[in-house]
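SAMPLE LOG
Freezer: B-3
Tube label: C17
Construct: single chain, 201 aa
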Amino acid sequence: MLKRASWFWRSADGFSLVDQLATLAVIATVAAIAVPALSNSIENQRLGMDIRNVEREMQVARLTAVSTNRPIRVLFNCPVAGQYRRVELIGSVNNPNTGDDATGQAARRCNYTYYPFPAADNDPLTRPNNDGPIQTLNSKVTFTSQQPLEFWPNGTVHVAPSIVSALPWPQIGSSPVNIVLSKGSTTKLISVNSLGKMQFQ
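STRUCTURE (predicted):
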């Protein structure tokens, strides 16, 4: 009886070093396969979050334009790459003193020194009253194709002209405008038509 008990305890000593190393090798192999896939999934989620945030900002711009009866622009890479801002059009359409011209937008309208958020007051005589905060994309997400958009009170969408002096900004034609965001080799876009309908692609 004692002999049988001692055999039992000897057989329950545990795993050998070879068994443990083999188990660790299997775990390391599975982890090496899973980590890149998980990393790509996280990066795609971040890009998806940014595309939704940009689309939401454009929707807010459109609703603000209609509700306040004021043209609202969405400026991209404003003032630096990866940032964007919703701004109320003030002065004339192309006015370098207010930053409403194509070259002054980033220098003034995307600068809290000139146009802080929130606005100093809500007096309709001292515009702007409807500028939004400067938004920032996640790191390594960039705008690879963007044109500033202008949302009008009648619900239509206009795009920055190729000729800077063109007044007013022309309405989007039959082909929608695409706002493209990318992270590495992955790209996503928002398609905007002349009536303000937006779709992810």
